[in-house]
């Protein structure tokens, strides 16, 4: 007959749900500190460095938004350049109508997000490859419609002339701070969203849409939420890019290369991870900085990096690290861990546990 102590010792160890770790808290604090330092960086950096960082922030926005759509909701799009181009176009249109050019940047993103609601009513009824191709069709249609605007004059394009009312240095600083604030706001907003019930619903939909619906997950409403959010972010990125480039040519802004950039950053960094797109954006920015002025070599550099990552880390750089070491710097999900053993009693026997393993 077993003694009580033996029965306790052989009982299965209870588990506990973990959301935060000391490392994760330190990383969140460190990221907030880095963003604070970036906010004051223009006072010590030269103009070229400020412009390059602005570009990096825009890439970060694009990577996070595409990952939210494909990595967490399972909606792979090859047409999100539609929202990028529409964001730039609407910003130019609003500025031409007399709206302050910097105000028009954010108003354009809001307008495109509103426009994406009726688009989602049709697109979200498609699945898999149908959705991907459907979004490409939306991008092509948006490109054609924008070309019909007399302001744009076909592929001739137009310019954000209203920015000339500000000095070059003032334009550079305001665009930098807007890009940083947009990236940080969308990033932390997405972080909070993914840690909520909506985040759990998104991952359930990604894994099995029918099963998610069977347990009461509002599938269409949840997918529409992330679709509209991604449209807003990509439109804001397009408007900010217009502020840096000043000129608008539809062929450039509606080009499929923008979705290719998003794919590269997310897949190389780690699809379906929160940290992956950030790493992917940094890597893409580095490759572009090194090879961007070298023409064909730039495309070769992108291809080589993509192939190497596919061979060495098929889950992406951060996806491989997370799987191997269980490391999560910015956790958006739950982790189940075995509860630690309680200390023994005065006689050296294992202490008993209560039903919840405390």
Short synopsis of the structure:
The protein is mostly helical and 358 residues long.
Polypeptide structure, described:
With 358 residues, the protein is mainly alpha-helical. 67% of the residues lie in helices and 3% in strands. It is built from 15 helices and four strands. The strands form two sheets. A two-stranded antiparallel ribbon has the order 1-4. Strands 2-3 form a two-stranded antiparallel ribbon. The longest helix is centred in the middle third of the chain and has 27 residues, at 168-194. It is globular, with a radius of gyration of 24 Å. The model is unreliable at 4-11 and 354-358 (pLDDT under 50).
- Please give the largest β-sheet: 2 strands, antiparallel
Rg (CA only): 24 Å
Strand order of the largest sheet: 1-4
State the helix count.
15
Give the topology, please.
Blueprint: H1 4-10, E1 15-18, H2 22-40, H3 47-72, H4 81-96, H5 101-123, H6 129-147, E2 158-159, H7 168-194, H8 197-207, H9 209-214, H10 219-245, E3 247-248, H11 250-253, H12 257-269, H13 276-291, H14 296-312, H15 317-325, E4 335-338
Task: Summarize this structure as a short list of keywords or feature phrases.
358 residues, mainly alpha, two-stranded antiparallel sheet, 15 helices, 3% strand, globular, disordered C terminus
């Amino acid at each position: 007959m077993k003694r009580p102590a033996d029965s306790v010792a052989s009982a299965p160890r209870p588990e506990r749900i973990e959301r935060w770790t000391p490392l994760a808290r330190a990383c969140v604090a460190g990221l907030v500190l880095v963003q604070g330092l970036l906010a004051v960086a223009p006072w010590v950096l030269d103009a070229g460095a400020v412009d390059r960082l602005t570009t990096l922030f825009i890439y970060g926005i694009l990577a996070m938004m595409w990952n939210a759509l494909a990595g967490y909701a399972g909606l792979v799009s090859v047409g999100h350049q539609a929202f990028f181009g529409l964001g730039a176009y609407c910003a130019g249109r609003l500025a031409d109508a007399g709206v302050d050019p910097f105000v028009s940047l954010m108003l354009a993103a809001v307008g495109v997000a509103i426009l994406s609601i009726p688009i989602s009513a049709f697109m979200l009824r498609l699945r898999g490859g149908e959705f991907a191709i459907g979004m490409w069709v939306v991008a092509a249609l948006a490109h054609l419609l924008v070309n019909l605007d007399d302001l744009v004059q076909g592929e001739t394009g137009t310019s954000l002339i209203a920015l000339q009312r500000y000095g070059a240095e003032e334009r550079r600083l305001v665009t930098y701070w807007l890009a940083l604030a947009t990236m940080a706001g969308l990033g932390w907003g997405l972080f909070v969203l993914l840690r909520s019930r909506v985040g759990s619903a998104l991952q359930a939909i990604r894994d099995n849409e029918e099963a998610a619906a069977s347990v009461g997950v509002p599938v269409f409403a949840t997918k529409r939420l992330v679709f509209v959010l991604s449209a807003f972010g990509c439109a804001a990125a397009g408007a900010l890019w217009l502020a840096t480039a000043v000129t608008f040519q539809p062929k450039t802004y509606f080009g499929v290369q923008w979705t290719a950039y998003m794919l590269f950053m997310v897949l190389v960094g780690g699809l379906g991870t929160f940290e992956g797109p950030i790493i992917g954006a940094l890597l893409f920015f580095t490759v572009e900085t090194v090879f961007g002025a070298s023409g064909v070599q730039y495309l070769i550099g992108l291809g080589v990096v993509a192939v190497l990552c596919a061979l060495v880390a098929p889950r992406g750089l951060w996806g491989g690290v997370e799987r191997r070491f269980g490391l999560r710097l910015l956790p958006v999900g739950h982790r189940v861990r075995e509860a630690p053993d309680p200390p023994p009693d005065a006689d050296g026997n294992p202490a008993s546990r209560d039903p919840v393993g405390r």
